[in-house]
């Protein structure tokens, strides 16, 4: 005699994030993301397969019994919570996000509460790497840029064996850059114990401009009909090293959020060029000045990336603004980089730009958005903290965010972080 399966005994008890419920029906949608390309005068289309569609699960559910109200509250809270959780259905189980939860209560069906639930199956594509890992990748990528920049600078910067003004223009530009660095440091808050050493580094960079700018070979000793070429005691790489040391010291002396604001203008430093390009010396002078400015901007970009990786962002809006500012600065510099000799620097800067964008994009998903609150009455910050967050502990946060003069009188319109 054939033995038939007892379906009611073998079906799973349905639950989501540990909250149990009963299932009337469940539907799972799947398939492929296809783009059909149809061409004129061609009978056969080309079908482009872009991968699997996100699996969507629609469930008609209910809770019933003497504790239906408690089960209803547990299921609704499970659906409100963020992130993926275990969704157990009668014949399948998976990790899923709750996209929509609709509850239906009727007074003539006491003890019975219906739900319409929509889920999306979890995947690994949204955030494959943790934020901390992406931050470390940024710091690792910075070293590659500095090395490529030093090689490029050595190959393009020279002042000796040209007209004297070539050296003078380069020295003046070094002093101008030192002034920009000094203004950036003095315009922000610096660790009191580290500020003297940092300012001394910048001052030495300014004072040594004439020596640092003397790069190249010149004939100044003659023996019969030949000359002995005297190599300058300063190498072009010294300029990159000294400038890089200043940025490194600044990163250690200035808080990341202040450092980000301080170096962003340096990353966009593009004063007007006044050098003549009608002679060989004029062209070399212009190339030297542009190389020095490019060095400043790229080192500022690496410091900006480091500051972003180490900064704590309070809300989503701050991180979105930081991503926009960084994208603008990196894109502007990438537009300026041209030529085969610049290829390694271009690739390194482009790679770092992508890492910064990935880091901030991943971080944004974890940060709370800012919401605008409008109220007919001016209530105390303690009241609003309890009302918005269920605790009075965040009253100081509301006061600080909105610059309120007295915590007892929040304005009619103010901002708050979403819970």
TrEMBL record:
Question: What InterPro entries does the record point to?
Answer: DNA_circ_N
Q: Which Pfam families match?
A: DNA_circ_N
Q: Which residues form the DNA circulation N-terminal domain?
A: 11-92
Q: What domain of life is recorded for the organism? A: Bacteria
Instruction: Return the protein name.
Output: DNA circulation family protein
Species assigned in the record: Hyphomicrobium denitrificans (strain ATCC 51888 / DSM 1869 / NCIMB 11706 / TK 0415)
